[in-house]
Design a protein that fits this description.
There is one protein chain. By secondary structure, this protein is α+β, with helices and mostly antiparallel strands. Among the domains are: 106-191, Helix Hairpins; 199-341, Heat Shock Protein 90 (2-Layer Sandwich). Helix content is 53%, strand content 19%. The protein contains seven helices and nine strands; from the N terminus they run E-E-H-H-H-E-H-E-E-H-E-E-H-H-E-E. It has helices at 40-88, 106-155, 160-191, 203-217, 236-253, 297-302, 309-319, and strands at residues 17-26, 29-38, 199-202, 222-226, 231-234, 257-265, 268-275, 323-328, 334-341. The strands form three sheets. The chain has a five-stranded mixed sheet. Strands 1-2 form a two-stranded antiparallel ribbon. The chain has a two-stranded antiparallel ribbon with strand order 3-5. It starts with 16 loop residues before the first strand and ends with a strand.
């Protein structure tokens, strides 16, 4: 049995029809069943949908675009406020902060992070300005001394002023040279870090050398030592500079005795430098590591100290992945302890 699809004349010629004819057997008779269905309704539906799409789709796109623009603008308004505030922050004034949205989302975290960055920049700028001001102040004193000495020498026609002031000028020149070297070292530490040689260093040899130097330069002091062989990897010149700064500080603070020790404990090398001086108040034991800090200003200036020794010692110790701490001694003085990995 076979089905065919074709066309046939109908009473209603105004509409299109889909006609299907199918042969069928019933009661021994063969019949042809013809079914005609109008497609006008489907065509009208498609035409209506097309018309609505043509008219409504642009309107819908416009509405969605405007809504999206408003929503995105509302969402990015905190970003614009942050951008405007950051644009208005100059290098001369870093005290302003960006507004933090009340929402706990990525924008709020971005604003908090930018404020933390501004805090660090403000701290760094304040530190730099203080550093420059202190350095200028320190350099002004030897320069004033040298200028005054040169004026005296120029006014003297006998030549005696040069003989009398030559040692003073040499001392001030050495003081200024040392200050400049210390400032350059700290500037490198702030910029790229202190570059260190990596070689075997016998700390006991460095301590023994400082003991001999202190005994010869300060015969009025009693210099005790308890030195044990300890070896680390590092820069011998820099570690010697750390030790010398600590020993010089202890010698200036001591009344009668300075004691140096070395030991190895739990995989670390430990150096201690102790004095029997008046000690350092607990509130100042961290502050003394800041640059240009002196607890006894008059004595430090008289002895040539610039307040940079402990700062340099801490930076060098950090570069060797070590620590340096100040603690009181049983007799009331101060013990400086340097701990380095062996």
């Amino acid at each position: 049995m076979r089905a065919q699809v074709g066309e046939m004349p109908l009473i209603d010629d105004d509409h299109s029809f889909l006609i299907v004819a199918q042969g069928a057997s019933y009661g021994g008779q063969t019949y042809t069943v013809v079914v005609a269905s109008s497609v006008q309704t489907q065509r009208q539906t498609v035409a209506t949908v097309t018309k609505y799409l043509i008219i409504g789709l642009p309107v819908l796109l416009i509405v969605v675009g405007i809504a999206g623009w408003l929503m995105i603008g509302q969402a990015l308004r905190p970003v614009e406020r942050i951008r405007t505030r950051v644009q208005g922050i100059g290098t001369r004034d870093l005290t302003e902060r960006v507004p933090v949205p009340e929402t706990r989302d990525e924008l709020a975290r971005l604003a908090v992070t930018m404020n933390e960055m501004l805090d660090r920049l403000e701290t760094g700028q304040a530190t730099q300005r203080a550093f420059v001001a202190d350095a200028s102040h320190e350099l002004r004193s030897p320069l004033a001394t040298l200028t005054a000495a040169l004026e005296v020498i120029e006014a003297d026609t006998t030549g005696r002023a040069w003989r009398d002031l030559r040692q003073v000028m040499g001392t001030e020149t050495d003081r200024m040279r040392q200050l400049v070297e210390d400032l350059l070292l700290l500037a490198k530490a702030d910029d790229t870090g202190i570059r260190m040689r990596q070689t075997d260093v016998d700390l006991d040899d460095l301590v023994e050398a400082e003991v001999k130097r202190l005994r010869s330069s300060k015969p009025e002091l009693t210099v005790d030592s308890d030195v044990h062989p300890v070896r680390v990897i590092g820069d011998p010149a820099r570690l010697s500079q750390v030790l010398r700064n600590l020993v010089d500080n202890a010698a200036r603070a001591a009344h009668t005795t300075v004691r140096l020790t070395t030991a190895e404990q739990d995989g670390s090398a430990i150096i201690t430098v102790s004095d029997d001086g008046d000690g350092i108040p607990e509130a100042d034991r961290q502050r003394v590591f800041e640059r240009f800090v002196r607890l006894d200003t008059s004595r430090s200036r008289a002895s040539g100290g610039s307040g940079l020794g402990l700062s340099i010692a801490r930076e060098i110790t950090r570069a060797h992945h070590g620590t340096i701490t100040l603690t009181p001694t049983p007799t009331g003085g101060t013990t400086a302890t340097v701990t380095l990995p062996t």
